[in-house]
Amino acid sequence: MEEPKTFFIKTYGCQMNELDSDIMVGQLTKRGLERVEDENGADLLIFNTCSIRDLAERKVMGKIGQLGRVRKRRPIIGVTGCMAMAKKEGIFRKLPHVDFVLGTNNITDLDEVLNDYIQSGRPSIRVDKQFEENLDYLVAKRDSKVKAYVSIIRGCDKFCTYCVVPYTRGPEVSRPPQDIIEEVRKLAAEGYKEITLLGQNVNSYGKDKPEWNCLFHDLLYQLDKIEGIERIRFLTSHPIDITLDLMYAIRDLPSVCEFVHFPIQAGSSRILRKMHRIYSKEEYLEKVHQLKSIVPNAALGTDIIVGFPTETEEEFLETYKVFEDIKYSVAFIFTYSPRQGTPALRWKDDIPEEVKLDRLHRLSDLHKRQVAEQYVGLLGTTREVLVEKRNRNGQLKGRTSCWKKVIFDGPDSLVGSIQKVHLHSFNHETLVGNISL
Ligand code: SAH
Ligand code: SF4
Ligand code: F3S
């Protein structure tokens, strides 16, 4: 088999997968392959997949399934990411035209797996449970020149009963602080202005390596010192690990954005217990109260699962009430999806789909109204916006430090700078403004 010359990569799922794709793009570019945006005609197709909900898996299966039928000239097809870990060899059975399967902990093996396949023409698979700590993050090739994801911890030890991530990404492994600092310095030197620190649970950073003496807030203090990085964000935080030290760091460090995504998942303590979230509603609300008293302008984000097994209408209304009280700026709301291999599978998925969807719609309607109110409150004010790029309609697009999307007119030279934008209107989830040059 010949060495492929071009590749196409499609990424599903979360930011961790996006960064893993950037690393694979870097590795393949280094190998001499050229990335193409059109899958037709590419010699190698990579699908970096997600398993979080059934729909996510079905999308990928459908997409790759189609390729088996219609193609004449066969490209090499690789499946990577979380579905590779969840289904392992099962992928070859379901999709016999897949040539290699590479798990989330084996990205460093991409070259080797490709070589194996090219030499033997036989399917190849690497799906180790343990993360390969030699992963070269510096090779990552990012699309944006302004903002970058930086991985600080991989895996998850929390084992929420509904979630596949601990099985698809393995146990928590923190990355050495000096490596993170080196990468962020390099990004700053290349002109990047914003970094988002990534992990399934960034605020348990360093707990697996007590000898480093560097917890998440310690890392923030170090990164804040790096010249050129104007904004530091982080995703995602588990409420249990949000400490007072972290709240003070958010308050005191100029580059750390006052936006915290810490998902409650459900507003009923009984459901939270069943989910194994290890906090009660009261404990969560107490954290929010502490955070708001230390960082009064903090904007909050959440993820929610509605229709978890046995969730009653009253329990759902507790979630609704939490929304009414907290007024999140960002909310991702999902209906419960049973996943193979998770503990929640022992309970019957007993909430009918239409009830789940009704709960989802009620919550997202409330959220939309609240976001609109937040936007009305912003009209007439001036906010600092980091300009990321020009959008399809020719306007400049950026975000406030609280992650609100803003568009306005201006020259290309402003991309990568922070501008004071006067906000005069909004449509849907985008604020519209203007600058005085
Ligand atoms: N580590 C993050 C979440 C990662 S998964 C955290 O703990 O906050 C992203 C979101 O997907 C979760 O927060 C949850 O709301 C949702 N999710 C995970 N498993 C799910 C399932 N089985 N069904 C529906 N939503 C799910
Ligand atoms: Fe999944 Fe829970 Fe880990 Fe988040 S904390 S990745 S929801 S197991
Ligand atoms: Fe999906 Fe894996 Fe992320 S399951 S949400 S791609 S960690």
Give keywords.
single chain; 437 residues; alpha/beta; Rossmann fold; pyruvate-formate lyase- activating enzyme; OB fold (Dihydrolipoamide Acetyltransferase, E2P); 3 domains; six-stranded parallel sheet; five-stranded mixed beta barrel; 13 helices; 19 strands; 35% helix; 22% strand; binds S-adenosyl-L-homocysteine; binds iron/sulfur cluster; binds FE3-S4 cluster
Could you characterize what this model shows?
The longest helix has 26 residues, at 353-378. The strands form five sheets. A six-stranded parallel sheet has the order 2-1-3-4-5-6, with helices on both faces. Strands 15-16-17-19-18 form a five-stranded mixed beta barrel. By secondary structure, the protein is an alpha/beta fold. The protein has 13 helices and 19 strands. Helix content is 35%, strand content 22%. The chain is globular. The protein folds into three domains: 6-126, 3-Layer(aba) Sandwich (Rossmann fold), CATH 3.40.50.12160; 137-377, Alpha-Beta Horseshoe (pyruvate-formate lyase- activating enzyme); 379-435, Nucleic acid-binding proteins (OB fold (Dihydrolipoamide Acetyltransferase, E2P), Beta Barrel). Residues 156, 158-160, 163, 165-166, 200-201, 238 line the site of iron/sulfur cluster.
Largest sheet: 6 strands, parallel
Name of the CATH architecture of the largest domain: Alpha-Beta Horseshoe
List low-confidence stretches. Answer: none
Number of domains: 3
The secondary structure category is alpha/beta
CATH class of the largest domain: Alpha Beta
> Residue share in helices?
25-40%
Query: How many alpha or pi helices?
Result: 13
Q: Give average pLDDT, whole number.
A: 95
Separation, N- and C-terminal Cα atoms:
58 Å
Bound molecules: S-adenosyl-L-homocysteine, iron/sulfur cluster, FE3-S4 cluster
Give me the side-by-side strand order of the main sheet. 2-1-3-4-5-6
Q: In the CATH hierarchy, what is the superfamily of the largest domain? A: tm_1862 like domain
Shape: globular
Rg (CA only): 22 Å
